[in-house]
Amino acid sequence: MRFSFFTFSFKPLSVLVLLGALSACAAPDKEADLPPDEPVDVLYNRGADALERGEYKAAAKAFSEVDRQHPYSQWATRAQLMEAYAYHANMDYDDAINTLTKFIELHPGNKDIAYAYYLKALCNYERISDVRRDQTAAKEALKGLQDILARFPETEFSRDSALKIALINDHLAGAEMEVGRYYLRQNLYIAAVGRFKTVIDKYQTTSHVPEALERLVECYSALGMVAEAKKNAAVLGHNFPGSQWYQDAYTLMKSKGVPLEGKE
To answer: How far apart are CA 218 and CA 232, in angstroms?
Structure first.
């Protein structure tokens, strides 16, 4: 789900003050690297037109020039946010996050501050990798989306943030399960228990909980901790009585000669 921020319509401004000549003491080679100053409306509309054409790098560059050449104009603040949007559209997430971080720090009371927080979280959300890789982006996205719910609960971004938080939690639980299964296959039962318990304690509303409980039954059975195995099987049976995971736990416990209530 992507919110479009391309809603500005630029009205021509009267340019009242022209920039003076550059100081003679400036280094000529540095001056040559900078484009000549242009009217703010020309720069802004250049960025807007580039966005419409899907030329996101060109758009980001034009909006950046608005901020550089006209930092005190009313359009510089808008241009910062549009620059970040262009970076995001081009999947240049690091540049987008850096621009948004600057915007949030400089303009905490801006009317579009909620969108800035949301777009920053979205940059991390959209680069979440699969459960077998580093989950830094997922954790950063989760933090950012939770911040939106806390700061801007009445905005249009809060509902989408809540949905994405649920998806991220399920993803992070899946990552824990992937590592836990690996430890279980390697007979590293204590390490596996830690991962499965994290899923149950921290991600208890996700779809991975039934399997995590069954895997705990496997681990504790392998460790000879029959009481703990039976306890987790009972919790599994109480909360997910019709699941295949409970059937697996029941079969395992029965093979160990340990009866479970409600199945006989």
So the answer is: 10
Compute how many other C-beta atoms are within 10 angstroms of the C-beta atom of residue 155: 17
Closest CA to 138 of 171, 184, 110, 161: 171
Nearest Cα neighbor of 73 from 42, 114, 98 is: 42
Question: Given pLDDT bands bounded at 50, 70 and 90, which one contains residue 182?
Answer: very high
Distance between CA atoms of residues 71 and 40, nearest Å:
10
Query: Which among 38, 29, 97, 94 has a CA at the least distance from the CA of 63?
Result: 38
Q: Quick check: 196 and 216 in contact, CB under 8 A?
A: yes
Annotate 196-240 with DSSP letters as a single string: HHHHHHH-TTSTTHHHHHHHHHHHHHHTT-HHHHHHHHHHHHHH-
* Of the candidates 90, 89, 41, the residue with the CA atom closest to the CA atom of residue 65: 41
At 28, the pLDDT band (50, 70, 90 cuts) reads very low
Q: How far apart, in Å, are the Cα atoms of 35 and each of 31, 32, 68, 136? A: 8, 8, 11, 38
Question: For the chain, what percent of residues have pLDDT higher than 90?
Answer: 67
d(CA 54, CA 36): 25
